[in-house]
Design a protein that fits this description.
The complex is a heterodimer of chains A (314) and B (224). Chain A has 314 residues and is of the alpha+beta class. Chain A is 14% helix and 31% strand. Chain B is α+β, with helices and mostly antiparallel strands and 224 residues long. The chains are: A alpha+beta (314), B alpha+beta (224).
């Protein structure tokens, strides 16, 4: 019997266990998955004194409401998240990027992410999870990962396998910023589109559609006209690829994307902008900005350096 | 042979084997795939073969486009016939409840149902690639008289086990998924098993596949 566990009072909209994901499986049709916003995932683990690749709970929009049973444990939440901690009769407003101690019968109510999509909950210890291909990451579509590949549901228990006896309270000053210009490298089918279409892609604004999830982000805007063929021979995809199907609206591949696709690729989002891209809520307006390969590589170095710098401040 | 290598974004190599799609070119793609996989190049995190392309994605913290391109440009492909072609016979039931698009095909192809099935079942297929969803095999080539486009509006849910046709290819939906292929039957055989981590896919690139028609009774009592 597990004596330390969380009881799920409310599961939230899409709460899943995530880690760094799984690699070298595209060729059999299995995508990376893993935490959508890598930086906030890493920060959550550091704030609770975990290994950088330990599993956390990722939630979207509305998070879970949990009641804790067991020995005291540290937790931290990252992202732009409103949450409350209930200790006996006291209701405490939670702060992101700061660790909190939970004791037996305390409740954690993750109310919502603000002007963003994903948030992360880490505990100072290990959840009791099943790994598939060395990752706990849940891919609800392929039913792969811990929790039988399903998102968390109400009344279920989340067992804690071990607790680090490390109750140092950690804090970081960090504010998430919202991205407006998404930097992209031209895609392999850039020339499938008319001069007018290319202009629209780099000059016009696009709106993030409601039909966005861990697989992909759909955008709406002025139609991008294709003058060659609206289909290509099906070929591999990667995270960040922007496909434009016949309707002329771009779709960006995200962490749980299909591994093969047959729509022309107009561009690819640079690696440096991925974490901020996934946080765009439906209705957000964005523009695409062209960069070349060497600039993209420099941008990534800077982004990674900034992340490492934040981690080292904790 | 690779005709051209370009970058797909900042963290992937896009290797183009030319315009044509046939068994010989695809065999080349698979040979490259297997060679690169065996080399275990540090930083490479996925290699995706398709009909006539190979995409190699990597961790930008460990390697970059120019460095990896140099390695791939100078790679020596494993010689000889190192690809093993396993053979599979896939049972398919074509009762009305499973052959969701057979009427559409009769119309589009101007061919009777029996004739469509006759031509489908007499063919041996080659697995070009797997993917889109976990374990889905892309099989070719379909009889020239059976080639149609995708549905105008894709289905939100295609049942698990469905056999679909589009252009020169057939596929098998390894689990329920959205999809736009023309569905002509259903197999009771499990094509993808996530509990077998080493070999979750029944059918892999290079394998040979034939389909065998079974009755509804056989379908219902099917045990692997």
């Amino acid at each position: 019997m597990n004596k330390n566990y969380f009881e799920i009072i409310r599961a939230g909209i899409n709460s899943t266990f995530q880690d760094l994901g799984r690699s070298n499986l595209y060729h059999i049709g299995i995508p990376f998955s893993g935490a959508m916003d890598n930086r906030n995932y890493l920060l959550a683990n550091k704030l609770t004194g975990n290994n950088h690749n330990d599993p956390v709970i990722e939630f979207a929009y509305q998070g879970p409401h949990l009641k804790y049973h067991g020995d005291k444990i540290n937790i931290a939440i990252t992202g732009d998240v409103s949450f409350k901690i209930k200790k006996g009769g006291n209701l405490i407003n939670g702060e992101c990027y700061q660790s909190f101690i939970l004791e037996n019968d305390d409740e954690l109510d993750i109310i919502s992410t603000n002007k963003s999509v994903y948030g992360y909950l880490a505990i100072s210890g290990k959840f009791d999870l099943k790994f598939q291909w060395s990752s706990c990451s849940i891919n609800t579509k392929a039913k792969i990962g811990s929790n039988n590949g399903e998102k968390l549901s109400v009344n279920q228990k989340i067992n804690v396998k071990e607790i680090n006896n490390n109750f140092v309270l950690r804090k970081l000053n960090y504010v998430n910023t919202k991205i407006e210009n998404i930097r992209v490298i031209k895609g392999t089918n850039f020339n499938y589109f008319s001069e007018e279409g290319k202009k629209i892609f780099f000059k016009n604004e696009f709106k993030v559609s409601k039909l966005s999830d861990r697989m992909g982000m759909r955008l709406e805007g002025k139609k991008i006209e294709n003058i060659v063929d609206t289909n290509i021979r099906s070929e591999g995809l990667i995270k960040g690829v922007i496909q434009v199907p016949a309707d002329g609206n771009p779709i960006i591949m995200l962490s749980d994307h299909g591994t093969i696709g047959g729509y022309p690729k107009i561009g690819v989002v640079v690696s440096a902008d991925y974490d901020k891209l996934v946080q765009l809520t439906p209705g957000s307006k964005v523009k695409f900005q062209e960069v070349d390969l060497s600039s993209a590589e420099t941008l990534f170095k800077l982004y990674d350096l900034e992340t490492q710098n934040l981690i080292s401040q904790i | 042979m690779i005709k051209n290598i370009s970058n797909l974004g900042d963290a992937a190599l896009y290797c183009d084997f030319g315009k044509d799609v046939n068994k010989d070119i695809n065999t080349q793609v698979i040979k490259y795939f297997k060679t690169i996989q065996k080399k275990n190049i540090s930083g490479v995190n996925n290699i995706t073969p398709s009909y006539n392309k190979l995409i190699i994605s990597f961790d930008l913290k460990k390697i970059n486009f120019n460095k990896l391109k140099k390695i791939i440009d100078n790679i020596e492909i494993i010689k000889g016939d190192s690809i093993q072609n396993k053979k599979f016979e896939i049972p398919v039931c074509c009762e009305e409840e499973f052959s969701l698009d057979i009427k559409r095909l009769e119309e589009k192809l101007k061919m009777k149902e029996e004739k469509i099935y006759e031509r489908f079942f007499e063919k041996e297929f080659f697995c070009y690639m797997t993917g889109f969803i976990a374990g889905m095999p892309f099989l070719g080539d379909l009889d020239e008289n059976l080639r149609v486009k995708r549905l105008d509006t894709p289905r939100v849910k295609v049942p698990k086990g469905s056999i679909g046709l589009t252009e020169q290819f057939a596929n098998i939906y390894t689990f329920e998924s959205p999809g736009g292929w023309n569905i002509i039957g259903n197999t009771p055989l499990n094509i993808f098993d996530s509990t077998k981590e080493k070999e979750p896919n029944l059918i892999n690139p290079g394998d040979l596949v034939t389909f065998k028609r079974i009755s509804k009774e056989k379908y219902q009592n099917y045990h692997e």
